[in-house]
Amino acid sequence: MDSLSQLALGASVGVAVMGRRTAPWKAALWGAACGTLPDLDAFIDHGDPVRNMVLHRADSHSLLYLSLLAPLLGGLAARLHGETDRWRRWVLALWLALVTHPLLDLMTVYGTQLLRPFTDHPYGVGSIFIIDPLYTLPLLVGLGVALRSHGARGLRWNAAGLAFSTLYLAWGFGAQQQVEAVARASLEAEGAQVQRLLVTPTAFNTVLWRVVAITPDGFLEGFHSLLDEAPRIAFERFPRGEALHEQWRDLPAVARLARFSHGFFKMDVEDGQLRIADLRMGQEPFYVFTFVVAREREGRMAPLPPEQLSLRPDFSRGLPWMWRRLLGEPVPTPR
To answer: Which of 39, 113, 207, 295 lies most in the core, judged by the most C-beta atoms within 10 Å?
Structure first.
């Protein structure tokens, strides 16, 4: 999730666990710091943009490593504030602030390597967009009241914010399962041979969902709103560049992204550049993570260090389309 959501979650957890045992601002400050700490790995340069992508949310998001760090931070907080008699509660509060960060990231589609060092598998549920105001605002409101009202009222508001945001996560997961059922029925009606299926929300909401189905000869993309009248998804078919992947699959950047995306990627050649894109984040033809991995030189394609492209949609067209489509209007997708 975005940094503001993680900061708010960590602070809210800190206040909820410490309760009246310390001043709310202390619990919120330490909780916010621990809620933000795992994402500092974004400042580490691993040598190229593909490695930076696949190694984000790695060791710093390991439940084991964060659990080992919690007693050190909890003991430090207790000592600095002269509350060593409450060090166990500080450890619990900061442990929860730390581990709820990767657990929240788990609900997005990016990929979080929770179980390092035992496995580097990137886990991702994909039931919430990386920025969703309906998740973050309740946390901020509850936390704001808790910091201004020193007493039971503030703690109740903070707990209510945590409860609402957690219920919203549950709602998103339930909505995802419903849309997946609609998607599978629609694909079966079309006779599509689906190898992999992805269902994830569009930006800032859990009402309009994007569906991607990998097939033997390409991929299908469709959208479904919970407000749609017809329980059927209209899909568009696109090439995925299977032949290019067969030719370049051993190139390290290609192999890394193919594995990290769980097979949801496409390859193409544009303007003499060989590109690979992660299909999970964005929509056709605009993807957040698109990389040039080879370039044509003297009539042949030559590998080069990966370069990330910035392919952004026209928001003046995309946002009005998303709003209308969210409300159930069967408007064509802007390309």
So the answer is: 113
